[in-house]
Write a structure and sequence with these properties.
133 residues, alpha+beta, Thiol Ester Dehydrase, Chain A, five-stranded antiparallel β-sheet
């Protein structure tokens, strides 16, 4: 099941045309990813402090479908797409009501203290659960 988070569009999120500036969708989905991870009981700060592990965006593929505008109430959906030894792939979408405005597939890499890929700890894999088939 997808995690859902509401985000209001503020004036600062828009461009000269009055629509959400394209890069701000990346901020919206980043916030939602962080909250999704938090709801799984994964403390990213503690993970970095105790094991030296962090998550970094490795790849992002995005489709801008329709514009969002000032004062829109948006919902960001985040769902697990795939898990491998050191990567987590997520499907994310930004919606206004039932209307899909933006879609992205984001691949996160687990990195160790030296910045090299590191295996996801078993506890995190357990919390993520199985990827959908």
């Amino acid at each position: 099941m997808a995690h859902r988070m509401e985000i209001r569009v503020y004036y600062e999120d828009t461009d000269l045309a009055g629509i959400v500036y394209y890069a701000n969708y990346l901020k919206f989905i980043e916030r939602a990813r962080t909250e999704w991870i938090r709801t799984l009981g994964i403390d990213q700060g503690r993970l970095r402090e105790t094991q030296g592990l962090v998550f970094a965006v490795r790849r992002l593929e995005a489709d801008y479908l329709r514009p969002a505008r000032f004062d829109d109430l948006l919902t960001v959906e985040t769902g697990l797409a795939e898990v491998s030894g050191a990567r987590i792939a997520l499907a994310q979408a930004v919606l206004r009501g039932p209307e899909r405005l933006f879609e992205a597939r984001v691949t996160l890499a687990c990195l160790g203290p030296n910045g090299a890929p590191a295996r996801l700890p078993a506890e995190i894999r357990r919390r993520l659960g199985p990827a959908p088939t």
